Prior knowledge:
There is one protein chain. The chain folds into three domains: about 1-60, Arc Repressor Mutant, subunit A (Orthogonal Bundle), CATH 1.10.10; about 75-190, no CATH class; about 200-295, VSR Endonuclease (Endonuclease, Chain A, 3-Layer(aba) Sandwich), CATH 3.40.960.10. It has twelve helices and twelve strands. The chain has helices spanning about 5-25, 35-45, 65-75, 85-90, 140-145, 150-160, 165-175, 180-190, 200-210, 250-265, 275-280, 285-295; strands spanning about 30, 50-55, 55-60, 80, 100-105, 115-120, 125-130, 135, 215-225, 225-235, 240-245, 270-275. The strands form four sheets. Strands 9-10-11-12 form a four-stranded mixed sheet, with helices on both faces. Strands 1-3-2 form a three-stranded antiparallel sheet. A three-stranded mixed sheet has the order 4-5-6. Helix 4 crosses helix 5. It is elongated and about 80 Å long. The termini are far apart.
Amino acid sequence: MDPWQSHILVVRSRSEIYDLLDVQGGVVLRRAHPELAAGFDRLRRDGELVAPLPGVYATPHLASRPEVRMRAAMLRHPDAVLLGAAAARLCYWPDAPLRSIEVAVPRPVAPAVGYLFTRRHIPDELVITQSGWRYAAPALTALDLASWDSADSLDLALRKRVVTITTLHDALRATPHRPGNRRRLRLLLDSRDEPWSAAERRAHRLLRTAGIGGWKGNYPIVLGGSLYWLDIAFPGARLVIEIDGRLHETDGDLFESDRWRQNALVMAGWRVIRFTWAMLRDQPDVVLAIIKRALR
């Protein structure tokens, strides 16, 4: 083959490789396209391609993006399942903090920078397969990410209603004998009143510890044709406890909607008491005293 023909083939393969990158989310698997081997080699030598995983190529400006690295894992290991923050980004928490991409694989895999490969079986009923992805269902993902210090993954999943307490318990039962399951069960018991934020979770603990009953977390009510979710409601006493958590400090729309909701509640004959995260954290006894007085 003369140099000109060789040059034409390289140009053609380069174009085909970039077309594949465009349609496959920024990654391409070398072994799936043996006819382009020379083009892959040339582009790698020229620095136009890098390998997030062995045999999987991406352009340098895309290779560090989480979604591209997640797609690389799917191409390299089609029977794998994305776990943890990677799964959360796909199913209910698009900006979940992602330190490394956790992947469940059926057989041992060599370590790779930015990945955590775990030999682990995920039950079929807890795997979502969609658009080329395989990832853990929200219930298992929320349990995997939760800890006693930060149950944000559980609270957010409950708030977005992608899980229920029942589906969370089902996921725990479907994955027995795992280290940490006793802690996960304690978290589920702590979540039984379905808190939607860390502040609500703290408030629920306070009420239960004080032996105060007759309340419901995130209680639905329709007023004036609008559906509202009350943070903590005592329906029998027509008393509402509103919890202003950390989101209220930065979300202007949430602040405004809370005021409209409070006005509607007061006009409908409900009493409303508000507490902040700092009040719950620093003055729990005062918070309880106010609630007890309101109930009397």
